[in-house]
Amino acid sequence: MKKILLSLLAAILFFTCANATTYTVTVSDYQFSPSTVNAVVGDIIKWVYVNGFHTTTSRTIPAGAATWNAPMQSAGATYSYQLTTSGTYNYWCSIHTTEMEGTINVTGSLAVNFGTFSIAPISGSSALISWQTFTETNTAYYSVRRSYDGNNFSEIGKVNAAGNSLTTENYHYTDATFDRSDKYIYYEIAAINKDGSMQLSAIKLFQNTGGVTRLVTSLSPNPVTGGHLMLQFNADAPGEMQVEIFDAGGKAVLSTQMSAVQGINNGHLMMMDLVPGAYNIVFFLNGVKETHNILVQ
Questions:
Q1: Which of 20, 55, 101, 277 could serve as a FRET partner for 115 with CA atoms 20 to 30 Å apart?
Q2: What's the pLDDT tens digit per position in 129-144?
């Protein structure tokens, strides 16, 4: 038994050192994308400027971790941070504290070394979630978790684990309970160890081909007060969403672009210069065009 455990520990140490990952987070249009990252100690978070006038600034981080505050305000700007301590890192843009927040969930020692993790549709009504592990140490079970925004996850099922293993193990779970109207759904796997500790996999995006085809999923507040309009929109592929605002007479009063990543995106329109009244906003992205009505007070 001691030899097996020593072999497992040696394998875990090897994978921890060899499999360090760099996660890229883009900074644009009042959002960090992705806004939630699951990582392990030793991994690197790299923020990359796309547009706007922002920062990446630590807010609440684990004891012993280093704080950071880096401007993200010009083309080519990047900032990299290596994760040295397990725990939850919360950060934001210090300029837009109410609109731009991010979270990094960091696992310490690796009880599980995850391999391939994929989501595939089944007849348009279910999602087949598949993952593999290369090694496992005292793993009790896997918690399959789902999110409709990429940030807030809840458990939808459990799968028993091999427990202790030095060989590749393959796991599957079918989700037949997701909201059929949602076009994009996010999944993660939590490895629950026998001592109660937890380790998270990477987050995977699933495109529900049977979901409602709509570009903009929310606009708030409407009526617009304070000159700020927040929106959430879907993108089938990375790109630039064209936004044009017209007054009641059909005159264009604002034109801008918003960077988009595949999946769910968040945006912010500054409308302080618009006089009170009714407006039409036209959104165009990836061949989809939508018009929405708003009222500015």
A1: 101
A2: 999 999 999 999 999 9
Task: Tokens for 12, please give them.
Answer: 């875990």
Domain boundaries, the chain: 1-108, 111-212, 216-296
Same fold: 1-108 with 216-296: yes
Of 142, 125, 114, nearest to 206 by C-alpha is 125
pLDDT at 2: 44
CATH of 111-212, one of 1.10.150.20, 3.30.70.120, 2.60.40.10, 3.40.50.720: 2.60.40.10
pLDDT digits (tens, 9 = 90+) for 47-65: 999 988 999 999 999 999 9
CATH annotation of 216-296: 2.60.40.3080
Peptide bond between residue 221 and the one before it cis (omega within 30 degrees of 0) = yes
Band of pLDDT at residue 98, cut at 50, 70 and 90: confident
Q: Which two tokens stand for residue 91?
A: 């950060």
- Which of 111, 107, 158, 109 lies closest to 138 in space, CA to CA? 111
DSSP three-state, residue 151? coil
Residue 71 has pLDDT above 60, yes or no: yes
- Which of 245, 237, 250, 219 is closest to 285 using CA atoms? 237
Among residues 200, 205, 192, the alpha carbon closest in space to that of 40 is found at 200
240 phi, psi to nearest 5 deg = -120, 125
pLDDT at 7 over 80: no
CATH code for the structural domain at 1-108? 2.60.40.420
> Helix, strand, coil % (nearest 5) of the chain?
5, 60, 35
Contact by Cβ (8 Å): 174, 162:
no
**Residue 15, pLDDT above cutoff 90:** no
Q: 43-56 burial by CB neighbour count: b if 16+ within 10 A, else e?
A: bebebbbbbbebbb
